[in-house]
Amino acid sequence: MLDLAFVRANLPLLEEKLRQRGADPAEVLKNFKGIDQRRRAAITESETLKARRNELSQQIGAHKKAGENADELQAEVKAMKDRGAALEADAEQADAELQDTLKGIPNLPHQSVPVGKGAEDNVEARRWGQAPKFDFAAKSHWELGEQLGILDFERAVKITGARFAVYWGLGARLERALANFMLDLHTGEHGYTEVLPPYLVNSESMVGTGQLPKFEQDLFRVPHGERDLWLIPTAEVPVTNLYRDEVLEEGQLPVSLTGYTPCFRSEAGSHGRDVRGLIRQHQFQKVELVKFAKPEDSYAELEKLTGHAEKVLQKLGLHYRVMALCTGDMGFSSAKTYDLEVWLPGQQEFREISSCSNFESFQARRANIRYRPAGKNKTELLHTLNGSGLAIGRTWLAILENYQQADGSVLIPDALQPYVGTDRITARQL
């Protein structure tokens, strides 16, 4: 969430940045200026009335002490009280409207973010590795998974519905192996602390990281007594909210956390896109990277975090590119985002496998996460960052498509063999 004073003082800049994001400033800001003026006018008049009431109260006391009639003054004070109560209610209503408006304003793109309308305007920052070359027609992961007997969509539909999957045998073991491999890498080499958070969170947590109220249609809501809980769309939500309403000391920063969780997304509005395979599922597993940093360090930390996600792909020998997202393609809460896109031979295209973002103080303000600079009493908002390190299902399918063999088997990358316990996946005996 943006700061109210900043929005008030920088409306022209905000309108320009919103247009760069492809948003309509009038639709996003609504009647911000009018509501703000109404709020401030109500507060000013209320304070003026309070001062006048204090003066009249003194006069009433003097009249009564002198034995004089003060009925008219008392009636005026009563009218002022009634008017003051109405003004306070109006100010509170206007403040609530302003807060709702603020919650719907996306983060401002960092100055280094390329300006553009959509994915076609994203800028390639770098590329690693080479695409594998086959002397046979490469198959998609859903073909390979079915032929090997390790990926089952039909039974998933039977027990749950569309956009879910069942993994069998070495398919299930490969998923588990990837999670353990990623967690070991991030905790061992990169210095992250592993955390296992709840998979259900309250509404306050969803507001804190920016999923609510704007993206409610993309979430799975779980009514629980008199309140709602939500299945997490990413570990970013519970892990970031670990420090909600808390103050960290400067010496603790940066805090680097990693966690493995299932993720649940309704994928509202995605009908017809990526309906085959594992690309866009309602449930998938992911290892997340989350950082809390000092504002002056956060962009250096973004480069580190992105590099940590890249290291997973490098160790697995998977060809990928890093894309700097343009203003029109960034997420709601992000100030800057890099997407890691892995090459998929079976589909002959790059597909996103990780998004690494700096949210600056956007989430910290919503979640009230602060830090105390050394030697100072006053606290400040810190910066939050996160990235997939990596999406496990997409890494799983990338391995199948990149390491497929002419005989239909799939080789296991060297780095994963100790975790899987074999060097090759062959057809499962049913």
Tell me about this structure:
Helices cover 40% and strands 21% of the residues. It has 430 residues and is of the alpha+beta class. The strands form five sheets. The protein has an eight-stranded mixed beta sheet with strand order 1-11-12-13-16-10-9-4. It has a three-stranded antiparallel beta sheet with strand order 5-7-6. The chain has a three-stranded mixed beta sheet with strand order 8-14-15, with no helix packed on it. Helix 4 (32-65) runs antiparallel to helix 5 (71-103), helix 6 (141-148) packs across helix 13 and helix 8 (169-188) packs across helix 13 (392-402). The longest helix has 34 residues, at 32-65. The radius of gyration is 28 Å and the shape is elongated. The mean pLDDT is 95.
